[in-house]
TrEMBL record:
It comes from the Eukaryota. This is Cytochrome P450 2C19-like isoform X1. The lineage of its organism: Eukaryota, Metazoa, Chordata, Craniata, Vertebrata. The gene is LOC109675397.
Amino acid sequence: MDPVLVLVFGVFCLLLLSFWRQNSGRGKLPPGPAPLPIIGNILQLDVKDISKSFTSFSKVYGPVFTLYLGMKPAVVLHGYEAVKEALVDNGEEFSGRGKLAIPEKTNKGLGILFSNGKHWKEMRRFSLMTLRNFGMGKRSIEDRVQEEARCLVEELKKTNGSPCDPTFILGCAPCNVICSIIFQNRFDYNDQSFLTIMRRFNENTRIMSSPWIQICNVFPAFLDFPGSHNRLIKNVSQMRTYVLEKIKEHQASLDINNPRDFIDCFLIKMEQEKHNQESVFTYENLLTTVSDLFAAGTETTSTTLRYGLLLLMKHPDVTAEVQKEIKRVIGRDRIPCMQDKSHMPYTDAVLHEIQRHFDLVPNSLPHSVTCDIKFRNYIIPKGTTILPSLSSVLHDNKEFPNPEKFDPHHFLDDHGNFKKSDFFIVFSAGKRSCMGEGLARMELFLFLTTILQHFNLKSTVHPKDLDTTPVIKGFASLPPTYQLHFIPV
């Protein structure tokens, strides 16, 4: 037979097989747009803003629908009711972690963020307990954050009111807090190794949110080709090398009766379980878990702070109101503390609105179902990827009228009191919700109020000319770069 005919026939059979595999289970899964063979629905998605595509699909197929990312189905949850029903009401069944190509390659199923099953449960339980023992959610960690806030103010004073890009300064503060918990040390803001760490974190978040990585996550074969993913993988490797050096330093000076930080506690647990062949407390897991905590405890908070300052410059009337409240409740002679928060409803509302409006992780990290489950009369097979659209909840126009507008009154009642909302799920919900939520809330309140207590924010352009639209909205939303003047009050 002619080789060309053989090739054509082979491709035809492959396409037919792909089409059959994609459609054989569609009678059980939620409805969705018809996928193309092999590539699925990827051409119908805006990889620069996937959450916008999800909203368009939900208008046609409802709040629960199926998309094919390549040849694999993913079920999208759109809107508060669907997200809550899955992640909270059926939390155990929806507690799996969906697969992403880059973390699969770098984490290999270890750590906290991208692990599953017994492994994930033990790591999360141990990490939560250890972090709490070292002050997470307690007064002792508040003292650390306050001290870092003082250092942040001193560093900002060194700008002498000149225009500056706050990216790295704002990254150093939360990074030092998490470093004090896992490494028992902090860095000087001008430490070159520290600045290198900040640059790698920032670059990795940007690359992970790029359209190219969204494509690589659907078609992992592209990881074998040149592209920005190689830079990301190299950065992760270099960060692991740094963490490895810290672990070795801890091993050399370990006192099992006096653990100093997270690494010490993990090393002690490793020693206790050294005869357990099935123990998850291994050297490789320590390396990955510390790297997860290091990255997650730094970049998310610093990015939110950066966007918050941009919004406050864009809305000077809001900034003035916050500073008025700071002056009334705290004054100038002491540093803010968490007890102040309950007396500052407007500031609390502004912090919530910054996070809601920014929509840091629009579609959460992917989940997966841990067993076959009947959900809203559909059958979702075990292992199916679940994509909860947090953006659809944070921009619900019934809960937040005119949701695209930055408006602190979304979180204030008619009497000016702070108003909680079940729709505020920036830290996700259920069993996979962010375990650093309490620390992140504390840092955002203490860092922003301390900055505004000491400085006025002055834009280098007229506020109306400031563009607050995220430059990237993929894995994470990233604010545009900007400069501002920190003018001492």
